[in-house]
Amino acid sequence: MKLTAGFTLLTASIASATTLSYDRGYDNAGNPMTGVACSNGNNGLITRYGFQTYGSIPRFPYIGGSSDIAGWNSAQCGQCYSLSWNGGQPIYILAIDHTLDGLNISEEAMNALTGGQAEAVGRVDAQVTKVGVDMCGLAPRKRAVEFLA
Description:
The chain is an alpha/beta fold. Helix content is about 20%, strand content about 25%.
């Protein structure tokens, strides 16, 4: 019992208030993935999933930039986040790019989060939690395990 409770505490994600803004560029399905930090390289979304445009990403336009992504080929590329605001239902955003502060998402996603108030509010402090990529419509990344005898 104690082991299970300890494991649960270790694996639980902690929600934190994070600044959230929007950028209409993330609403354009035809934008090429080559223009974002998570384009190619071992951690790139072109490499890992074959996405060529924003519109090829499952659950588009629920995408955006994250300050967790330091730059090109970051290990945080493809991180999925749960966002909630003012006690409303959460939305899930796939991080595909770098932003300086918090998260910067599509206007459509911001409207879904704020009840159609994206333009009026501009920027909000939202509750943000890292979640599994399956919540953003992606298959979890396979990891190789090596056993030494």
